[in-house]
Amino acid sequence: MNALDDTDFALLRALSEDAAQSAGALGKQLGLSQPATWRRIKRLQEAGILAGRRVELDLEALGFGVTVFLGVKLATKGRVSLEDFERAVTAIPEVQTVQHVLGLYDYRLRVVARDLSDFERVLRRRIMTLPGVGNVEANVLLSEERRPGPI
């Protein structure tokens, strides 16, 4: 793919703000026709730059009022494979993201729960019983603001 131009970056910024916009609406914003906008979107998809579109859910409206970030350090590397841990943790529905990280912890998890007692249940009965789990540190999310990316 050729280098991205200013219009491509403007298109990516507009899509990152609202991925549900039609090619016609995006074209109007950018001064392009609907077919020209669609061709650019298609080209960005084929190049792997646009990897997909996501729906943003309001977790609180769905009854999940608590979000906790967990740092998980595996107790014994080698005894339990990373794949075993990842397979087991991704099967827990309350775990939204699993990130293998470098640093003090081996994994960073984003966990949602209805309230703190529900989180405690998930932590004790599901997460702490996973293969290889050693130290766990919890950070409760107080607020979150979505920031635009570097584009």
Features:
four-stranded antiparallel sheet; elongated; alpha+beta; 151 residues; Alpha-Beta Plaits; Arc Repressor Mutant, subunit A; 2 domains; 5 helices
How are the elements arranged and paired?
Elements: H1 6-17, H2 23-30, H3 34-46, E1 66-74, H4 82-90, E2 95-100, E3 107-113, H5 116-127, E4 133-140
Antiparallel strand pairs: 1-3, 1-4, 2-3
Mean pLDDT: 91
Q: Which class best fits the helix and strand makeup?
A: alpha+beta
- Shape category: elongated
Give the total of beta strands.
4
Put simply, the count of helices is 5
CATH H-level superfamily title of the largest domain = Lrp/AsnC effector binding domain/regulation of amino acid metabolism (RAM) domain
Which fold name fills CATH's third level, the topology of the largest domain? Alpha-Beta Plaits
> What portion of residues belong to β-strands?
15-25%
Gyration radius, in Å: 20 Å
Number of domains: 2
Assembly status: single chain
Largest sheet composition: 4 strands, antiparallel
Which consecutive residue ranges, at least 5 long each, have pLDDT under 50?
Answer: none
C-alpha termini separation? 18 Å
CATH architectural label of the largest domain: 2-Layer Sandwich
Strand order of the largest sheet: 2-3-1-4
CATH class of the largest domain: Alpha Beta
Proportion in helices: 25-40%
Q: Which H/E pattern describes the elements?
A: HHHEHEEHE
